[in-house]
Amino acid sequence: MAEKNDRHKVAIIGAGGVGATTGYALMVQGIASEIVLIDINQEKAEGEAMDLMHGASFVPPVEVSAGDYSECEDADVVIITAGAKQAADETRLDLVKKNTEVFKQIVPSITEYTKDAILLVVTNPVDILTYVTLKLSGFPKNQVIGSGTVLDSSRFRSLISNHCEVAANNVHGYIIGEHGDSEVPVWSLTNIAGTPLDNYCPICDYNCEGELEGIGEEVKNSAYEIIEKKGATFYAVSLAVARIVRSILRDENSILTISSYMNGQYGIEDICLSLPTIVDSQGVEQVLNLPLNDNEEEAFVESAEKLKEIADTLEL
């Protein structure tokens, strides 16, 4: 990481819907002092930066500009959102080869100017592309992370909170594994105000039988539904990315389900996917091994194996 001071710089590669909205989220929350948008379409980046800066009087002090890859040199965090976006009839994994080729151009352009920044991958399929970024960059494993299932876990909590009519921040639960079709809801550890969900539901006066199981499927399919209805997702994912960046820049040691390199967790190695992880100024501080039940652990391992099969087909 760059030397700590009161100013934090974030470079965002890709000024499309997710990149620009991430800049907006960072700006409104006062997370970064300097935000630079970098895009192959320079005019698009300049226009987004101008639009953001015109709201500077309403937010904490911040500088927003458009630039090129040289702006990564003194960035604390470089966020990668660029790449082909997911079509309504595509899965996230369908994007693998297209976006791997894009990343073969992006990652060396970043590492030409920095070896110290945390690289945060958002582009889908995020787990494979986090792995690709790690291999292409040669960075230490703690410095390369993906947004993973941070958004999925938020969707999970939101749907449970709506069902049980409690605030989402009182629901504690995780989605682990792939950010995609093989993701795993950890029902065995989900709780409301410390009360396991199986114990909470009988006292909440709602009939939960058969309904909660559908929440996991709804989480998995929600992105497809949003893409079908409006063409892309960017608000919630941008808030998720801002949450990750905040934990890095403020050295919070927050536990977030980011995607990172597995090094023996549940017997999984040499692939990136999501588990609750302590995130600080160095990126990954520690990946946590949850006490999963047998079905959850089996599903997590299957998720990892699916990703490894795909990663093994890539030429890196």
- Count the DSSP helices: 9
- Give the C-alpha Rg: 19 Å
- Mean pLDDT comes to 92
Secondary structure: number of strands: 16
Q: What structural category characterises the helix and strand content?
A: alpha/beta
Strand order of the largest sheet: 3-2-1-4-5-6
- Inertia-based shape: globular
Poorly predicted regions: none
Query: Sheet with the most strands?
Result: 6 strands, parallel
- Beta-strand share of residues: 15-25%
Question: N-to-C SSE series?
Answer: EHEHEEHEHEHEEEEEHHHEEEEEH
What gap, in angstroms, lies between the N and C termini? 26 Å
Helix content: 25-40%
Key words describing this protein structure:
globular, single chain, 3-stranded antiparallel sheet, 316 residues, 6-stranded parallel sheet, alpha/beta, 9 helices
Structure report:
There is one protein chain. This protein is of the alpha/beta class and 316 residues long. The protein has nine helices and 16 strands. The protein has helices spanning 17-28, 42-53, 96-111, 126-137, 150-164, 197-200, 212-230, 235-249, 294-311, and strands spanning 9-13, 34-38, 63-66, 77-80, 118-121, 144-146, 171-172, 175-176, 184-185, 191-192, 195-196, 254-256, 259-265, 268-274, 277-280, 283-287. The longest helix has 19 residues, at 212-230. The mean pLDDT is 92.
